[in-house]
Structure to design on (182 residues):
């Protein structure tokens, strides 16, 4: 029995992102993001209504500054009091979990998809999704990048501009490209 690309994505298998169903889901996210980003803050509140409805789980007192971008939205889990500053980008092809009281600086990017290394398979749109888990009370500095498959422990600090390519232990500060403990 043939699996749809969405089913492959959900199972953690290689899938083609060049797919009508997935494109429809991305368009739904684009519309929600557009509403969020274009509404006056006093009308939008902490999160635009379409984006709030799209996000998988939103705890109380979560705030997402505009502009913001996500690929799908429904793969995001934002715990209580999480704060995403302006310019954050979530390529949430699979689960991105942000713990309570975690703060993301401006322009933080989280990339779950990994494109195939074989050029022909990459041209066919093959990618695999790797989840990202960020614990409680984490502070991620502006312009940091977190790659797929990463876990960041409670209380960790990611320096501005860091590129996180490996797990970060709880209460550890990492900086640089690739990010390394201070």
């Amino acid at each position: 029995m043939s699996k749809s690309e969405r089913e492959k994505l959900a199972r953690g298998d290689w899938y083609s992102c060049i797919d009508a169903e997935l494109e429809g889901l991305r368009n739904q996210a684009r519309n929600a993001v557009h509403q969020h980003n274009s509404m006056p803050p006093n009308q939008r509140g902490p999160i635009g209504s379409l984006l709030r409805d799209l996000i998988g789980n939103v705890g109380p007192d979560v705030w997402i500054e505009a502009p913001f971008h996500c690929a799908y939205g429904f793969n995001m889990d934002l715990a209580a009091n999480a704060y995403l500053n302006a310019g954050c980008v979530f390529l949430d092809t699979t689960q991105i979990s942000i713990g309570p009281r975690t703060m993301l600086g401006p322009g933080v990017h989280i990339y779950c998809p990994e494109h195939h290394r074989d050029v022909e398979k990459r041209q066919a749109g093959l990618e695999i999704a790797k989840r990202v888990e960020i614990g409680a009370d984490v502070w991620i500095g502006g312009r940091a990048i977190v790659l797929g498959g990463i876990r960041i422990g409670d209380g960790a600090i990611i320096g501005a501009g860091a590129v996180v390519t490996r797990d970060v232990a709880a209460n550890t500060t990492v900086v640089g490209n690739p990010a390394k403990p201070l």
